[in-house]
Amino acid sequence: MYESTRGNLSEQTASQAITLGMVPGGGLFVPSTFPALNWQDLQGLTYRDIAQHVMTPYLPEFSQDVLSDIVNVYADGTFDGPNPAPLISVGNFGVLELWHGPTAAFKDMALQVLPNLMKVSLSSVELNSDVLILVATSGDTGKAALEGFKNREGMHIVVFYPEGGVSAVQERQMTTTEGTNTHVVAVKGNFDECQAAVKRIFALDSLKAQLQEKNLIFSSANSINWGRLLPQVVYYYWAYLQAVEQGKVTPGSKMNVVVPTGNFGNLLAAYYAKRMGLPIGQIISASNKNNVLVDFFSTGVYQSQRAFFQTISPSMDILVSSNFERFLYEMSGRDAQKIRSWYDSSNQGMFTVDPDTLKQCQDTVYAGWSDEDETLETISRSYKAYQYVFDPHTAVGMKVYEDYLATTKDQTFTVIASTASPFKFSSNVLTALQGKQESLRDEWVALDDLTKLTGWKIPLGLQGLNNKPAKTVEVCEAEGIVEVLQRMFI
Ligand SMILES: *Cc1c(COP(=O)(O)O)cnc(C)c1O
User: Fold this and answer.
1) I need a labelling partner for 423 at 20 to 30 A (CA). Which of 166, 206, 343, 367 fits?
2) Where is the Threonine synthase N-terminal domain (predicted)?
3) Distance from C-alpha of 364 to C-alpha of 209, rounded to nearest angstrom
4) From CA 166, how far away is CA 150, in angstroms rounded?
5) Ligand 1 pocket, 418 CB below 6 A?
6) Is the CB of 59 inside a 6 Å radius of any atom of ligand 1?
7) C-alpha span between 484 and 28 (Å, rounded)
8) Is residue 449 part of a domain?
9) What is the pTM of this model?
10) Does any domain span residue 11?
């Protein structure tokens, strides 16, 4: 069963948690226990079958046949190649490439599964409504969600992104999405403002009532939705099993993970896998210049009211890290009262945790960050050393891993979660590889140039993008989102 981090709802089924997305009145759904799952029992299985094993205990009302169909996306050619998440040996560490899905973003790992989880959940809670999925994106979620939900019967999706806050390739990926049920809207402001505006919509009872008359209910495809987190637990098991099979980890000994962090979903999934019994050692959180989490881990003060930086790793340009609430719930010993006090709106995004909770956080996660120059420099240095091309997000992870190594001398085999293909950020990657470039580069030329330079293939989802017909994008103020939705659906 599932409960709210703020103690205002408990004993909810997985279907209820997935249908609702977030707890009405505030709070996030968390599983009331973490079932144990032995990695040894999964040896020799395919990714698809491992996904079924990891997800089964969390979805008791889903039949095995239904779940088996849902996880089939990992085996039916949706992901390029037979392994949806290969562990690549680079130097003496591993890189878990999570971007072999249709949109070349790690978010495909979950967003190819979520629509079906939602469909089954809806029928299980006996709701005959259509769902309206609202997504705020800093770049990658948008396209991955559009791709997952396009042309799904009974589902509509509207993606909001910060105007000018995503890369040309990301924007083009979104605006070229086919599908009669997909919408894309640019919002003036940065991602946090965009995300906050979308979150406010979920609490608007008047709009909810208007939509209900049209037989529509809201849900979320952001990683606040349990259906987004659960499929992410799988790839840490998969990483470990590959590391054992490749002889990088002796069976049963620990493996560290480095996670480039934004909304803290990817990292939380690693922590959940550890709670289920996977031998994960240190969990390392890597931030870019928006290093609000790094400050938190050193001081216990979460201060999101601060300067926002637009960086070359835009999917991590986040100051209000949604899933951190779930993490603090565990770190505080599941103290819903504390969570409520910290996340009370009167605090305006700033709170200080008690010393015990802080100590627990520090014992569980090592947090570091990389500035813009260091990130570019890491891309270039790693390419020279390993002939491996990191995208700027993963490069942030690499830099923080190097800092961690220098500080701790920890020789445990470490896996860096690689969250995007370098081709999504070709222009900046080229700048890193070839030295400083004068002015803005054409992103489409950059894609070809990066192929020529590295010999790597452009991911399928990014090929021919510039020639596809694009939808016109509506632009609105954050306060104008309601009106846009009313125009579309009422
Ligand atoms: C979403 C995203 C992240 C951050 O992941 P979270 O789960 O939000 O912490 C990092 N890198 C890329 C490329 C992303 O798309």
Assistant:
1) 367
2) 2-72
3) 43
4) 21
5) no
6) no
7) 27
8) yes
9) 0.95
10) no
Structure tokens at 123: 């029928």
Ligand 1, atom 4, residue with closest C-alpha: 262
What does the pLDDT read at residue 440? 61
- Tokens for 62? 């889903």
Ligand 1 close to Cβ of residue 107 (< 6 A): yes
Maximum average pLDDT range among 19-33, 203-217, 392-406:
392-406
Let me know if residue 316 belongs to a domain.
yes
Q: Is the pLDDT of residue 128 over 90?
A: no
What is the tens place of the pLDDT at every residue in 340-368?
A: 999 998 889 999 999 999 999 999 999 99
| Cβ(5) – ligand 1 distance below 6 Å | no
Q: How many domains, the chain?
A: 1
Please give the share of the chain, as a percent, with pLDDT higher than 90. 82
* Mutation pick for ligand 1 pocket among 263, 369, 425 (CB with most ligand atoms within 8 Å): 263
Distance 418 CA to ligand 1 centre (A): 10
Ligand 1 pocket: which of 143, 393, 425, 428 to mutate (most atoms within 8 A of CB): 393
Token pair belonging to 432? 């890193």
Q: What are phi and psi of 220, to 5 degrees?
A: -125, 140
- Can you tell me which residue has the tokens 């979104």? 174
- C-alpha 486 – ligand 1 centre gap (Å): 30
Q: Is 487 domain-assigned? A: no
Rg (CA), the chain: 21
Q: What CATH number does residue 348 fall under?
A: 3.40.50.1100
Residue type, 278: L
